[in-house]
Amino acid sequence: MLAEIKGLNEECGVFAIWGHEKAAEMTYYGLHALQHRGQEGAGIVTTDGEKLNVHKGVGLINDVFSEGEVSRLTGHAAVGHVRYATQGGGGFENVQPLVFRSQTNSMALAHNGNLVNAHQLKSQLEAQGSILQTTSDTEVIAHLIKRSGNVPMEDAISSALGMIKGAYAFSILTEDQLFIGLDPRGLRPLSIGRLGDAYVVASETCAFDLIGATYEREVYPGELIIIDEDGFRTRQFTSPMERTLCSMEYVYFSRPDSDLNETNVHASRKTMGKQLATESPVEADVVTGVPDSSISAAIGFSEATGIPYELGLIKNRYVGRTFIQPSQELREQGVKMKLSAVRGIVDGKRVVMVDDSIVRGTTSRRIVRLLKEAGATEVHVRIASPPIQNPCYYGIDTSTKGELIAANHSLEDMREIIGADSLSFLSTEGLEASIVADRDRRQHGVCQACFTGNYPTEIYPDTVIPAYKE
Ligand code: SF4
């Protein structure tokens, strides 16, 4: 997993808790478990029943929070967020949770995903006199909620959700209520757990494990959950639709120890590797995975073929992030900085190099070269997902179509560009079967739009592709 140089990035991670005397501390730890989902900004907002307390900033959680700052965030409930800077850039004003204060009540909003009709809604809001202070989609949701006037908050949120389209998993904290919601297709992951009597919510279940919480269930597509002093209640703001959870969460983004929609990420990656071996076998001496996210698939490939799995590539763990710059030249150097081929393992061997995905192809070319420079006689590249040929509109930075190698080259051209002796991708059917198996697709279906171009929602001419902005 070489997110910074591969050009494939998650947008955000969301955490929330209600009914815990150390709400800020639990959120701080929960966000640590979600740090891989966003490193550009972090924030926590708590409520003590009367007012919202906020601390947030640009950078990693440890850069933003000291012990004193966490302990100053008093209260029994909290929402937290880690952010990757896509729409609107990485400035402080876009770091979440976004807080909106008014005379009647205040709210803090933390959101993961991307609205496909944000541009239209922003134009409507501005035409009606709203002044947008940030460039993020999250503020659009807040303005739509506020526009509903003097109605109960849950009705205002429900009505706002009826207007927005796209992918979103959010939590909203007011002085006395916590709201949790998921888009009608359930494109982004969101789970509910319990920590004693407290309720916890997180983008990934690895956050529950870190704080000792137990998993309860998924937030359902189109569900709005309300938690307050009267307890936990739920309503549907849309009629149920077939779930299309992002398959790239399984392929690449989520941590292997997380369960998404009740399927373990490591286990599904292993199945992808096994399926890939069945679809595209090859004669070789060793199988190696590109660390970290491809190791599970490589183990699966090895188990299915009987070719031994070896650590042919090692990640250099302590390379500073400041070395990674977006220019092509430095990206290429970045691979060398971040990965080493193990000569003692690959020298004189025919190597199967399993990777989770190919975006621009630059990283794959460098890794193939690293293996050959270390003595590999053949390098057979096996990709545990289908070719990415389309941009994502739902909160994942997959680059534009022009930058995607698979959108612009044939399989043979790609093989030649990356310098491999052979190249194969997992089929879309194989990917879906690895995640969904024989489970009910209405509950457990997946989005594969970046592979197939079949987007599960409307896409408008002015829908913006999330793309990294400095
Ligand atoms: S288009 Fe791809 S990256 Fe985006 S939500 Fe669908 S599967 Fe995930």
TrEMBL record:
What name appears for this protein in its UniProt entry? Amidophosphoribosyltransferase
Q: Which residues form the Glutamine amidotransferase type-2 domain?
A: 12-230
Query: Which keywords annotate this record?
Result: 4Fe-4S, Glutamine amidotransferase, Glycosyltransferase, Iron, Iron-sulfur, Magnesium, Metal-binding, Purine biosynthesis, Transferase
Task: Name the catalytic site residues.
Answer: C12 (nucleophile)
Cofactor binding, note field? Binds 1 Mg(2+) ion per subunit.
GO BP, one example?
Answer: purine nucleobase biosynthetic process
Q: Which residues bind Mg(2+)?
A: S293, D355, D356
**Record-listed [4Fe-4S] cluster binding positions:** C246, C392, C447, C450
Fetch the InterPro entries from UniProt: GATase_2_dom (IPR017932), Ntn_hydrolases_N (IPR029055), PRTase-like (IPR029057), PRTase_dom (IPR000836), PurF (IPR005854), PurF_N (IPR035584)
Substrates-to-products reaction catalysed: 5-phospho-beta-D-ribosylamine + L-glutamate + diphosphate = 5-phospho-alpha-D-ribose 1-diphosphate + L-glutamine + H2O
Its biological purpose is as follows: Catalyzes the formation of phosphoribosylamine from phosphoribosylpyrophosphate (PRPP) and glutamine.
Q: What Pfam families does the annotation carry?
A: GATase_6, Pribosyltran
Per UniProt, the enzyme's principal EC class comes to transferase
HAMAP family on file: PurF
Q: What is its EC number?
A: 2.4.2.14
Q: Which pathway is this protein engaged in?
A: Purine metabolism; IMP biosynthesis via de novo pathway; N(1)-(5-phospho-D-ribosyl)glycinamide from 5-phospho-alpha-D-ribose 1-diphosphate: step 1/2
Asked if the Swiss-Prot or TrEMBL record annotates the protein with the keyword Transferase, the reply is yes
Q: Which family does it belong to?
A: In the C-terminal section; belongs to the purine/pyrimidine phosphoribosyltransferase family.
